[in-house]
Design goal:
The protein is of the alpha+beta class. Helices cover about 20% and strands about 30% of the residues. The protein is built from eleven helices and 48 strands. The strands form eleven sheets. A nine-stranded parallel beta sheet has the order 31-30-28-25-21-20-19-33-32. Helix 6 (about 385-400) packs across helix 7 and helix 9 (about 520-530) packs parallel to helix 10. It starts with 5 loop residues before the first strand and ends in an 8-residue tail after the last strand. It binds alpha-D-glucopyranose (GLC). Alpha-D-glucopyranose (GLC) binds near residues 298 and 481.
Length: about 750
């Protein structure tokens, strides 16, 4: 990636255009905290599927020509641009955050790689792709103390240092391990935390990309791609939380979801008949497990044809859903992009006639195979195709469906991957599969989202497996086909925390594990984590042992119930976090390092997490274990089970028999809690209940109708709560939603106060 020496530079508003000997480059100041580094390798302008609209916030920019570099600074960041388009970034205090390497990569090969690959292939081993140099390669010097976070749903540990990754949305059937380079999602954003600084880097290139966080060599890390532009954003902030906020300013925050989506959800591939679904719902109530959503996997369809119902196994689905709704259940149905090739099938016929499907290089409709057999792939890059898909959702919605679950949208295909030259040509621009692959899931989710918004008029509930950066605006995600393995439970924490740091606040794993057979103990330990994860859904594959809460014995059922109920108890707190997150971009489920970045004990903490900043969860993640070491950061913490107050800044040993998931509440926390109920909204909440810990603290609680967009027009209430020397007062500070609370009650040390009035 040679640029040569700087020849000249010119400032035009917030852009500094730089002519180098061999290529042009451009620095664009987006906000005082966000600087874009760009060079045309494909197009003159950004070609982004993550950033929508003009994000520039004018700020003061100083540009000066120094002896050997151009200096560009805002109030927060300083960038020095040198020959060969090398850039170094400093914070406002002049602390070096990040420095381009002035040397190339050093491939580490001292042997005949090709001969070796041939040899191991003959033994039947998977052959890893050869490492190679890339057209676009940005190599940053490792200063030595970096920890890396983010990168979406990658496997492995919280801190990505020393590992390499690729972004190429992949549905891999093997058990996901820490050495996997790619899974279903591509979010080319990472945060670098150093002792003296923190920044984010978003490489907005949706082609296949490569990230090496110091695996190849110890003294540099790099990111790369072979197509697209050199187009990356350096994102500052005075701490990690600000970096996340700035990244989500750029790519969007997670909007407040409907309240019921935060309730417990039950799924299985598949509940195969109407009768089975109705029995499931009855069992949820019989066994007293609160539940808001039941998911219908592919078997509700006729021959796996999207937008159809199998009327033999699901007669009169409207009646089924009407009845379920009366009892507090919502139904979410799965949709896959692969549309069955079948003469006379309306989706196939309509799409074929209008030219909505991807084609091969000769313009013939491209056919591969998915669940329905031969299948074709809608061109979701075209707005018209997205609207067509969205309008077909109307039937599902009119029948009673409350959300859409998008699957297999990498897209997955059974007869080998789609060739890179498959064409998506319906829209204004023709895309190759090579370009569209990583954003296909996001575009399909946008279609699903728009359909719900248009026809349901409520806040759309979409779940997707595949996506690109920025997906949070349109969909929640789940981490795909994990397995009932202890190391997958362990991985759930860093995976969900890194998704949160990558802007995706609404995410979950298949509780209990999708593949393999769950054990009683694993199911219990998983629900203890799942009840604190933003999306709380138990899902499992056909042919695997069932994992509904009552599958095992009474003990399992009781413990399972206890944690589902705990979720409903904390549900108003979760909802508040989402309401705040829509503004700040901060995740609901957080690694400790997000709140305590100066504490070196939490840099690599994979087995504990926070919900907001008040609840610390230290679950048991190993078979047979009934005690664990817990790290409590600075401050004072209250053991949620025993109410013991414990000084932070230390490791403690906690007893955690099967029924106990260690939970600690930060002293000074006020947590709004909900009533015991079978589903969200069953019990009228006209009194605000606050569970308080410690003596001094404050909190703002949010309330709205939990369903539509009226809150954006001011139809919400906000309450400010103050706790001083143990005395709790509350006052309504915004009033816009008609069903305001009539008063409040305080729970302290297990006892509940009488109803008190809000201060005037
Ligand atoms: C995929 C999904 C899984 C689903 C199955 C059948 O494997 O990841 O969740 O159950 O397809 O639709």
């Amino acid at each position: 990636m040679m640029f040569g020496k700087i020849v000249s530079s010119k400032q035009e508003g917030n852009v500094v255009k730089i002519q180098f000997e061999k290529r042009n480059g451009r620095i664009e100041v987006i906000t005082k905290d966000i600087i874009n580094v760009f060079a045309n390798f494909e197009s003159e302008e950004h070609n982004s599927f993550a950033i929508e609209g003009n994000k520039v916030i004018p700020c003061e920019i100083k540009v000066t020509q120094e002896k050997d570099h151009i200096l560009i600074s805002t109030d927060s960041l300083t960038l020095k641009v040198y020959d060969d388009f090398k850039v170094d970034l400093y914070d406002k205090n002049g602390v070096l955050l990040c420095e381009d390497s002035r040397e190339g990569r050093r491939l580490n090969e001292t042997f005949d790689r090709e001969a070796f690959l041939e040899l191991i292939a003959s033994e039947g081993h998977d052959v890893q792709e050869e490492s190679k140099l890339h057209t676009i390669e940005v190599i940053k010097k490792m200063q030595g103390d970096e920890a890396f976070y983010g990168l979406g749903d990658k496997t492995g540990f919280l801190n990505k240092r020393s590992y390499e990754f690729e972004n190429w949305n992949s549905d891999l059937p093997q058990a996901h391990n820490e050495d996997f380079k790619a899974l279903y999602k591509s979010i080319p954003f990472f945060i670098t935390l150093r002792e003296n600084g923190v920044f984010g880097l978003f490489f907005d290139n949706h082609y296949k990309s490569y990230f090496d966080m110091g695996k190849e060599q110890l003294d540099y890390y790099y990111f790369a791609a072979d197509k697209g532009n050199l187009d990356y954003y350096m994102i500052g902030g005075s701490n990690m939380a600000e970096v996340v906020s700035n990244y989500t300013y750029l790519t969007g925050t997670t909007p407040l979801p409907q309240k019921f989506t935060l309730g417990y959800q039950q799924s299985r591939w598949s509940y195969e008949t109407r009768k089975e679904v109705e029995e499931l719902a009855a069992n949820m109530r019989k066994y007293n497990i609160p539940c808001d959503v039941i998911h219908l996997d592919i078997d509700y369809m006729k021959d796996y044809k999207v937008f159809t119902w199998n009327d033999k196994t699901f007669p009169n689905p409207k009646e089924m859903m009407d009845n379920l709704k009366e009892n507090g259940f919502k139904i979410v149905t799965i949709l896959d992009p692969g549309t069955k090739v079948e003469d006379g099938y309306f989706m196939y016929e309509e799409g074929k006639e209008k030219g909505y499907f991807a084609t091969d290089e000769n313009g013939e409709i491209y056919v591969n195979q998915v669940w329905p057999g031969d299948a074709v792939f809608p061109d979701f890059s075209s707005e018209e195709v997205r609207n067509w898909w969205a309008d077909h959702e109307k039937d599902l919605i009119d029948t009673g469906v409350s959300g859409i679950w998008n699957d297999m949208n990498e897209p997955a295909s059974f007869r080998g991957p789609l060739p890179l030259d498959v064409q998506f040509a319906h829209g204004e621009k023709t895309y190759t599969h090579e370009e569209l692959h990583n954003v296909y899931g996001s575009l399909m989710s946008k279609a699903a989202h728009d359909g719900l918004e248009k026809h349901d008029k409520k806040r759309p509930f979409v779940i997707t497996r595949a996506c690109y950066a920025g997906i949070q605006k349109y969909s929640t995600v789940w981490t795909g086909d994990n397995q009932s393995l202890w190391h997958h439970l362990q991985m759930a924490i860093p995976q969900l925390c890194n998704l949160g740091l990558s802007g995706v606040a609404f995410a979950g794993t298949d509780v209990g594990g999708f593949g393999a057979d769950v054990t009683k103990e694993l199911l219990i330990r998983w629900v203890q984590v799942g009840c604190f994860s933003p999306l709380f859904r138990n899902h499992c594959a056909k042919a695997q042992r069932r994992q509904e809460p009552w599958t095992f014995d009474e003990e399992c059922l009781d413990i399972y119930r206890k944690y589902v109920k705990l979720r409903y108890h904390f549900l108003p707190y979760f909802y508040d976090l989402f309401a705040k997150g829509e503004k700040t971009g901060l995740p609901v489920m957080r690694p400790l390092v997000l709140q305590y970045e100066k504490d070196s004990n939490v840099k690599d903490m994979n087995d504990q997490f926070l919900v907001g900043d008040s609840i610390l969860v230290a679950p048991i993640l190993e078979q047979g274990k009934t005690k664990r070491m817990v790290y409590l950061p600075q401050g004072e913490w209250v053991d949620y089970h025993t109410k013991e107050v414990i000084k932070g800044g230390q490791y403690i040993l906690k007893d955690a028999p099967l029924s106990i998931c260690p939970i600690y509440i930060k002293s000074g926390s006020v947590i709004p809690v909900g009533p015991e109920q079978n589903y969200v909204g069953e019990v009228k909440e006209d009194i605000l209940v606050l569970e308080c810990f410690g003596e001094n603290g404050s909190y703002v609680h949010y309330q709205d109708n939990g369903e539509d967009f009226a809150y954006r027009e001011g139809e919400y209430n906000a309450y400010e709560i103050t706790m001083k020397a143990g005395k709790v007062t509350a006052k309504q500070i915004h009033s816009g939603y008609e069903k305001a609370y009539k008063g409040y009650q305080v729970i302290k040390d297990g006892a509940i106060s009488s109803i008190m009035e809000f201060e005037k």
